[in-house]
Design goal:
Number of domains: 2
Helix content: 25-40%
Structural class: alpha/beta
CATH class of the largest domain: Alpha Beta
Shape: elongated
Radius of gyration: 24 Å
């Protein structure tokens, strides 16, 4: 689906979209309208059926208003902002799709005059439309009723396109934003930026939504290499032998029970001078998590294909920064394996040595994410980055604490936390500062090793996990951990431009803003 900016009118479009906000008196308020459109606007408000509230819409079919057959009014809510527009864009997309409209125009003034920054308005509109347009349909039947057999699509040879459609149903192809003045360079660039960010976020969703047999560590690495071609992003993939040679004891331990080899994906983007220290992002790439010997309950275990959403977010972030040609040096690291209870699986009570030399006692094999992240974080810290950030679906405790609205952020660096909060605000994502103290580090000390992979009690599970990761980074490099276990999938009830069920692609926009802030 394409968003275009045009001055004046657009021929051949039968549907017009008009945005309206809710004023302090509870009435709908929009830009100046022609008499025929104003008449429809008043009809929409009849009996207070439309007051410009968020997620509200009224669709008029078979009209003749300024040459448009159909007119759609959509509410932005009170005090609109970029997020209001993203939400409204999802309402637009779903309404037009439901009415089988393939092309439409937006009354530009009703959009760009709702917030202070007209460029941000068109960026948010484009993001909301493109993100709502995502759907994972790769493995559904074709219109003929035929499906791919296991022989036709073996898991080790799968090559897909993010968000590929497999039906012939009418789809929304273009939205033309009609402006009263020629679009500015800032507005044109904002649409391009939104297209790149959304494309990369949808790619991360696709990686997450792909089942474990279609998204093994090897396939994840191969898809990263393929996606990076032509972007200026350098991708290096370590195989099992290299991982062992590099002393990634945590990654090797978690992989022991699996028939799938591990991979370590190293991505490098250089948009600044060689002497400029890089920003480092690390993402958990657990392609499926059974819990290992400490096996999970069977209920909802199918969701553990999403345990690699942190890694997907880092991959998408690196792709976005490269496509945006950001003026910054960035490193992305993704340790990848699955966690299986095979005959060679690591066991509770085992001790292994992480890359930084610390010994780790395993009390619970289901606390595996911190083990594979620890090696990657240690490796990243050796590169002396200006800051290191990780994203991981790490703990169920963060879901209990924050639900599926906010991503928990753990750092001791107050200045870094402010930078993160500023980036998240610009990106339109919700983060929340969580505690990380020496008390939590003490809770992670082992009995027969330097560290244990879980604490002795159930309290503050997200903070003790963050403390474990901090021990792998050290205190010399500014560090922040993002626990996305509550926000990485199934958040549609909160954010309508996300799938009802499936990966959200969370934190990518924030990570891009963070990297650019350096």
């Amino acid at each position: 689906m394409k968003v275009s900016l045009k001055k004046g009118t657009a021929s051949g479009l039968s549907t017009l979209v008009i945005f309206a906000a809710k004023d302090k008196n509870g009435n709908a308020l929009t830009s100046k309208l022609s008499p025929s459109l104003q008449n429809l606007f008043q009809m929409a408000q009849k009996d207070a059926s439309f007051v410009g509230a968020a997620k509200e819409s009224v669709f008029f079919r078979g009209q003749d208003a300024d040459g448009y057959t159909n007119v759609l009014f959509v509410g932005l809510g009170a005090a609109p902002n970029a997020e209001s527009i993203r939400v409204a864009a999802s309402v637009v997309f779903n309404s037009l799709k439901g009415h089988k409209v393939t092309t439409a125009a937006v009354l530009g003034d009703s959009l760009v005059k709702q917030i202070k920054d007209p460029a941000l308005a068109v960026q948010a509109l484009t993001e909301g439309l493109a993100l709502t347009d995502y759907e994972y349909t790769d493995l559904k039947s074709k219109p003929s009723g035929k499906t791919k057999s296991a022989d036709q699509a073996p898991a080790d040879k799968v090559t897909k396109v993010a968000g590929k459609k497999v039906t012939d149903k009418p789809k929304l192809e273009e939205i033309a934003v009609l402006l009263s003045a020629a679009p500015t360079a800032a507005q044109v660039n904002a649409v391009k930026r939104a297209e790149i960010l959304s494309e990369c976020q949808n790619f991360a969703r696709w990686l997450g939504d792909s089942p474990g047999n279609y998204m093994t560590p090897t396939i994840l690495a191969d898809e990263t290499v393929k996606a990076a071609k032509g972007t200026g992003l350098k991708v290096t993939v370590w195989d099992k032998a290299r991982i062992k040679k590099e002393r990634f004891g945590g990654l090797m331990a978690v992989n022991q029970g699996s028939t799938e080899e591990p991979r370590f994906i190293v991505m490098e983007y250089n948009g600044a001078g060689k002497s400029t220290r890089p920003v480092c992002f690390v993402g958990k790439g657990l392609t499926f998590d059974t819990g290992g010997i400490s096996i999970k309950p069977s209920a909802s275990m199918e969701e553990m294909k999403y345990d690699m959403c942190g890694g997907a977010a880092v991959i998408a972030t690196m792709l976005a920064l490269a496509k945006l040609k950001a003026k910054v040096n960035v490193i992305g690291l993704v340790p990848s394996t699955d966690n299986m209870p095979g005959p060679d699986a690591f066991k509770p009570g085992d001790v292994y040595f992480a890359r930084n030399g610390k010994s780790v006692e395993v009390f619970n094999t289901d606390a595996e994410g911190r083990l594979i992240l620890g090696d990657a974080l240690s490796y990243g810290a050796e590169m002396k980055p200006v800051a290191i950030f990780d994203a991981a679906t790490l703990t169920g405790a963060i879901l209990v604490a924050l639900g599926n609205t906010h991503t928990g952020v753990f750092t001791r660096d107050a200045k870094l936390m402010r930078r993160i909060q500023d980036a998240a605000e610009v990106a339109g994502e919700l983060v929340w500062p969580m505690p990380l103290t020496d008390f939590h580090v003490d809770d992670m000390k082992g009995t027969h090793a330097d560290l244990c992979n879980i604490s002795g009690g159930r309290n503050a599970g997200s903070s003790t996990a963050a403390a474990f990761l901090e021990e792998m980074v050290g205190r010399d490099v500014p560090f922040a951990h993002f626990d996305i276990a509550g926000t990485a999938w199934s958040v549609n009830g909160r954010f309508p431009y996300c799938p009802k069920k499936g990966a959200s692609g969370i934190i990518i926009r924030t990570f891009v803003e963070l990297a650019e802030s350096f």
